[in-house]
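User:
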Amino acid sequence: MPLQLEIVTPEARIFSGEVDSVVLPGSDGELGILPHHVPLVTTLKPGELVYSQTGKSEYFAVGTGFVEVTGGRVSVLTDMAKGESEIDEKSVEDALKRAQERLESIKHDSATEEVAMVQAMIQKSMAQLHVKRRRKNV
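Assistant: Predicted structure:
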């Protein structure tokens, strides 16, 4: 019995279909989901989401969000989901550099909200580079 996976961002439904398994970056670490998984709701942190479909794996860089597993369904609601082909490595490297420079300039301020926002940008950039570079080396 396959899983029904849906990956949704505020902009679009990124993927909807049957898969054999899903591995994603949950709040407490990497989470593997197979058919008949116990129901759960957890937060999603920036990282790599991998799903397998008839022996072939697909890789996505994902941002923050939520994951709900119920019965044979996995719903991923995230602020970012990009496949390897959608990631422009040079643009992401530039964004990462700008975010790191911004973090250095504000780290002594008491603007913890801004620090958290910049750190989230850095994590999303790192997730995208990880997916892009991993696929280059395969």
